[in-house]
Predict the 3D structure of the following.
Amino acid sequence: MTRYAHESTMTFNPGIDNKPETLLKAKADNNSAAHSEANTSSQLLTVKDHKRSITIALIVGSLLAAINYGDKIIGNTMVNTDWIKLGMTYVVPYCVSIYSVWSAKKKH
């Protein structure tokens, strides 16, 4: 029976130094390994990935812009908020595309 909740997760390994400072160092080493893994995963995206995502954003964004704002652009009735929304029409597909690439590469 354990007195503290954290005691149940700690195990005693015969032949291994089980002093608290050694266990804390091992935990710190694991954290630094996870941190270095996070650093490499942030470098997964290449210039080619960004170019592909921009291409997708231009195609999808243009299609959506034509559907949603085509009549306002042709009729010259766009207001400031419409232009901001139009810009977001291109930004959102780019973000979705680049996130998809990053997510797929991170799994491998």
About this structure: The chain has a mean pLDDT of 79. Residues 5-41 form one domain. Residues 47-74 form the longest helix (28 residues). The chain is about 70% helix and 0% strand.
